[in-house]
Amino acid sequence: MQLKMLLAVFGSVFLAELGDKTQLATLCFAADRECSPWGVFLASSAALVCSSLLAVLVGSQLSRFISPQYLKMGAGAVFILIGIWVLWGALRA
Q1: Which of 12, 18, 44, 75 could form a disulfide with 26 if both were Cys (CB 3.0 to 4.6 A apart)?
Q2: pLDDT at position 45 over 80
Q3: How many Å apart are CA 61 and CA 56, to the nearest integer?
Q4: Measured between alpha carbons, how far is 23 from 81 in angstroms, rounded to an integer?
């Protein structure tokens, strides 16, 4: 593997995960005195590894049928739609 590609993937995923729901849920579990911090770390790390594995497996198979450019455009459109949905819900509340 190329170092440049590894750093790009690491940086992208690291920045995308900062402050998201997963990190906030992990923070809440770690703040619970009944939960072991190491247990929370191991469980959340394993969950991220499993979800990443699933994404890699599905993405590698999808790329056989759909152009990566279209996959990126589709993912961007889904993120925009989710953002609109969240904003709509916040404005209605």
Answers
A1: 44
A2: yes
A3: 8
A4: 22
| Helix H or strand E segment including 3 | helix 3-17
pTM of the full structure: 0.68
Triad 67, 73, 78: Cα angle to 5°: 125
Residue with tokens 């993120």: 79
- The gap from C-alpha 73 to its chain's centroid, in whole angstroms, comes to 17
Question: Are residues 72 and 46 part of one domain?
Answer: no
User: What CA–CA distance (Å, rounded) separates 55 from 49?
Assistant: 10
Q: Which amino acid, residue 58?
A: V
Token pair belonging to 92: 């209605």
Range of the domain at 74: 67-93
Do 18 and 1 share a domain, yes or no? Answer: yes
- The one-character DSSP state at 79 is H
Residue 82 confidence (pLDDT) above 80: yes
- Mean pLDDT for 70-74 is 90
